[in-house]
Amino acid sequence: MSTAPLLEANNLAVRYPNGELALHDVTFKIKSPSFMAIIGPNGSGKSTLVKTFLGLIKPFKGHISVNGYDSVKKSGKIRKMVRYVPQRDRIELTVPMKVKDIVLMGRLLKKLPPRIASSKDTKIARNALEQVDMADLWNRPFPELSGGQRQRVLVARALAGEGSILVLDEPLAGTDTESQDLIVKALGMYHKENDVSIIMVTHDLNPIHTLVHEVLLLKNTIVGIGEPCSVMDPDLMRKVYGPTARIVEYAGHRYCMTQDSGIDRHD
Ligand SMILES: Nc1ncnc2c1ncn2[C@@H]1O[C@H](COP(=O)(O)OP(=O)(O)OP(=O)(O)O)[C@@H](O)[C@H]1O
Ligand SMILES: [Mg+2]
């Protein structure tokens, strides 16, 4: 097994073609394997960071690597290692794909053509849907599902895939508490039972605070990094979410109340 860090960035800056400097002076290291969260307000560069380490965007300055592979020079290697659930699902909803097709895609896309599902693929896909309590919807057209159900299917697709790193950009967005619990439990179990790192972008640390080893707090650069409780710090939170952010301690837990994200809790 490689001992390279899961993520390592050196003096990274990312500029969009319109001139927007989405990330600057980003330097950090996260060891592998890990279950980590990337948090920060809207526009703080979370999705940009993800797209950069996946090799989808080139840095303007500096470098970032995944398991020791440089995002520019080794993007092919990185794509093979990573299963990625983007922030907004890019699946064309007018295409009448069934739930099973979506989940099987997670296994078939990395195969060479002809991409035919084996009985093993089908078994793994069904099992992944069971993890998020969606096995009953195997034959349902994907566009007919609710937003939260779709998120669960997309998480199942990632669980069914192969590769040592799972990257999920806001997988809990638009889901109710029940769906959130199912997704979080499935990811937590998957991380424990498999040698897989999970990188999750989230607005709300609350549902995953007991699972996460490290938190990266972004506001276009690194504002905080470390265990969830060290990042859940009043000064840091105010720096990122503004002067109205408050840390409230209640029954042994720390809650962060922000205008941006509601309430985040951490022990
Ligand atoms: N394709 C693009 N072209 C130009 N600017 C962009 C593009 N994508 C993002 N940006 C800008 O870069 C900054 C960071 O955006 P990014 O999407 O990474 O933020 P985010 O933290 O993921 O936000 P959110 O919580 O809303 O998902 C923002 O100011 C955004 O306007
Ligand atoms: Mg985003």
Q: How would you explain this protein's 3D organization?
A:
With 267 residues, this protein is of the alpha/beta class. The protein has 2 domains: 7-231, Rossmann fold (3-Layer(aba) Sandwich), CATH 3.40.50; 234-267, no CATH class. Helix content is 30%, strand content 27%. The protein has helices spanning 46-53, 75-81, 99-108, 119-131, 147-160, 177-193, 228-231, 234-241; strands spanning 7-15, 21-30, 35-39, 61-66, 69-70, 82-85, 165-169, 197-201, 214-218, 222-226, 246-250, 253-258, 262-266. It has a 6-stranded mixed beta sheet, sandwiched between helices. It has a 4-stranded antiparallel beta sheet with strand order 2-1-4-5, with helices on one face. A hairpin with a 5-residue loop joins β1 and β2 (21-30). The longest helix has 17 residues, at 177-193. It is globular and about 50 Å long. The two termini are 33 Å apart. It binds adenosine-5'-triphosphate and magnesium ion. Residues 16, 18, 20, 22, 40, 42-48, 87 line the site of adenosine-5'-triphosphate.
Named once each, the bound ligands are:
adenosine-5'-triphosphate, magnesium ion
Alpha-carbon distance between the two ends: 33 Å
Order of strands side by side in the largest beta sheet? 6-7-8-3-9-10
CATH C-level of the largest domain: Alpha Beta
- Approximate helicity band: 25-40%
Return the CATH architecture of the largest domain. 3-Layer(aba) Sandwich
Strand content: 25-35%
Mean pLDDT: 88
